[in-house]
Specification:
314 residues; mainly alpha
Length: 314
């Protein structure tokens, strides 16, 4: 089987998984009630979450720019923001947002696009560290999960933080991951990994700790966004349970890159976890869709404009 046919089959399979997830969501909620909840949502919900969308993007940019500086890439702040935005539409149309590795395309004329792709991987690693940390905290404050589940997740999180704070081990992990990456980065993994390690040696662990801290703030911002939208629907359940449940959703979805653009994963997890916590699944679905529009579709649209401008400039 050639690479093109294999890619087509994988895409088809992911499309089937997406459809199954959407069917699951439809079977677990009252669609009429969901539509009613959407219509009655107070304006201040999406408005407040929209303002926080700018904070969310700003924190993502801050983490990305920290990594760009640590990687010794001479990108001014405005340019690194353009690179970040360019990755959004590429991530939207690919499973697990792996398309964001193409961020380097917009600076390929002046910078090594492979190095930018490697830094994008590091960016995702620190995003994962933040998401798992917030999910673990959410489980604790909301009483979600058993003691042994919390213990296992804590051990996993400590191991994840340890790897994130030791660049050489992180680089070795990236090399192990390389065979599963697109050819354009796999071909020069050794060279780019060496550059990343050198950049991190210059920056030290302070940048790593800062990146983790920014990631935690960024994920917490998304939790606040969702909570505002959930309350705007008119569902005034226990805030602690709502915050904890959505934190778990954000953490879990990072380990399920099974659909294109994560469509259905976020919504399916929200419906399943909120139902388990005896919370309104309809309100959760409406809020999750609002977050998808604000944090995925709108930034992807802005990134598409950036890519279009880049193509014109070429």
């Amino acid at each position: 089987m050639n690479a093109r046919m294999r890619s087509l089959l994988v895409t088809l399979l992911r499309g089937v998984v997406t459809l199954l997830l959407l069917l699951y969501v439809a079977s677990r909620v009252d669609l009429a009630q969901t539509l009613t909840d959407f219509r009655r949502a107070a304006w201040w919900g999406p408005a407040g979450a929209g303002l926080l969308m700018l904070v969310n993007i700003g924190l993502q940019w801050l983490r990305w720019h920290l990594l760009v500086r640590a990687g010794d890439l001479e990108l001014p702040p405005s340019r690194s923001l353009i690179v970040l935005l360019a990755g959004y539409p590429l991530g939207l149309i690919t499973p697990g947002r792996i398309g964001e590795l193409g961020r380097g395309a917009v600076v390929s004329g002046t910078h090594d696009s492979v190095s930018v792709a490697g830094l994008t991987l590091l960016d995702h690693v620190y995003g994962l560290v933040g998401a798992v940390g917030v999910a673990w905290a959410g489980m604790i404050i909301s009483g979600y999960g058993t003691a042994w589940q919390l213990a296992v997740l804590f051990v996993f999180y400590v191991a994840l933080v340890y790897v994130a704070l030791h660049p050489n081990r992180l680089v070795r992990w990236l090399k192990t991951l390389a065979p599963y990456l697109p050819a354009f980065i796999r071909e020069r993994t050794e060279e780019s990994a060496g550059r990343f390690a050198q950049g991190w040696r210059l920056a030290g662990r302070r940048v790593a700790l800062a990146a983790i801290g920014v990631s935690i703030l960024q994920i917490t911002t998304v939790v606040v966004q969702f909570t505002i939208c959930y309350l705007a629907v008119g569902s005034f359940s226990s805030l602690i349970k709502v915050v904890g449940a959505w934190a778990v959703v954000l953490g879990a979805k990072h380990f399920l890159p099974v659909t294109v653009g994560d469509v259905g994963v976020r919504e399916g997890l929200a419906v399943a976890i909120f139902a388990h916590r005896a919370l309104s699944t309809e309100a959760a679905l409406v809020a999750a869709l609002m977050i998808y529009v604000l944090n995925v579709l709108i930034p992807a649209g802005a990134g598409a404009l950036v890519l279009a401008r880049w193509r014109q400039d070429r």
